[in-house]
Amino acid sequence: MSTTAAAADPFAALADLPGVPEAVESVRTAVDRVYAHRVMRRRSNEISSEAALRGARASAALDGSDWALEEVRRRSDFGSEPEARTVGAALRLSAEAGQLLSVWGQSPLRVLARLHVVAEAREAPEVGRPRVAGEGVRDHDLGLVLPDAAETAARLEALTGLLGAGSKAPALVVAAIVHGELLALRPFTTCNGLVARAAERIVLVGLGLDPKAVCPAEVGHAELGAEEYSRALAGYVTGTPAGVADWIRHCARAVELGARESTAVCEALQRGAA
């Protein structure tokens, strides 16, 4: 790709990094396998609902609230203590993400603000807007240096501008960069990990890789483990081609594992119907 083309579509340039084309192809195969399952032809809504639940549970686990799936399924009160609030926030985001697909294409920043409002579920001056000078982050510790508010605002504007301009890059690549950049910036005072993973899901669905939202990448990220998640993210934050490529491949593996999870759900439903 020429320098001019790379500048015009940076996402597409990242799609050519070592190992990324192969990762994109592997993810496409895994997703296609789920969509081809006979259960998906009759019960795709059930698979989508289960994927949303499992994805929310996994996203909360990555933020330190690692509840059993059946506990998440059983509970109705999520406001009593910090872990419960994290799980509740993840569930609300999972439910809200599908409602924001059309808005994302017009204003990604507006969607990110809305996701933060939904996650927090409370009124406060800092809710629903990027942090400003003097505000820190009260979040699950990722072990990364926090950019100041000015740098965060500039990079967030650049990211949303690129998203608004569109890209020929595969959905996986765009989703991985959105996820990684939001975690690197942590633009809000709270809930940044939950918001970043919800945004990743919106991109994967909205750009057509997983239109029925049945391949929860959050499940894969959690299965790969918090240590691996942090390691891959640290590589992304370096900004080196190797680090960014490794992060994209990590996200690809997470989507594959999410697809595998939903394939297992399809198989379980098929056995139950037999």
Description:
This protein is mainly alpha-helical. The chain has one domain: Fic-like fold, CATH 1.10.3290. Helix content is 71%, strand content 0%. The protein is built from 14 helices and no strands. It has helices spanning 3-8, 10-14, 20-35, 38-62, 69-74, 82-97, 101-106, 108-120, 149-165, 171-185, 192-206, 217-224, 226-238, 241-273. The termini are far apart. Mean pLDDT is 94; it is low at 1-5.
Element string (H = helix, E = strand)? HHHHHHHHHHHHHH
Instruction: Work out the number of β strands.
Output: 0
**What are the segments in which pLDDT stays under 50 over at least 5 consecutive residues?**
1-5
CATH architecture: Orthogonal Bundle
What is the name of the CATH class?
Mainly Alpha
Overall pLDDT metric: 94
Shape: globular
Gap between N and C termini, in Å? 52 Å
CATH fold category name? Fic-like fold
Return Rg in Å. Answer: 18 Å
Strand proportion: under 5%
Question: Any idea what the CATH superfamily is called?
Answer: Fido-like domain
> What does the main sheet amount to?
none
Counting DSSP H or I runs of 4 or more residues, the number of helices is: 14
Count of domain modules? 1
Class by SSE composition? mainly alpha
Helix fraction, binned, reads over 70%
Describe the structure concisely for a colleague.
With about 270 residues, the protein is mainly alpha-helical.
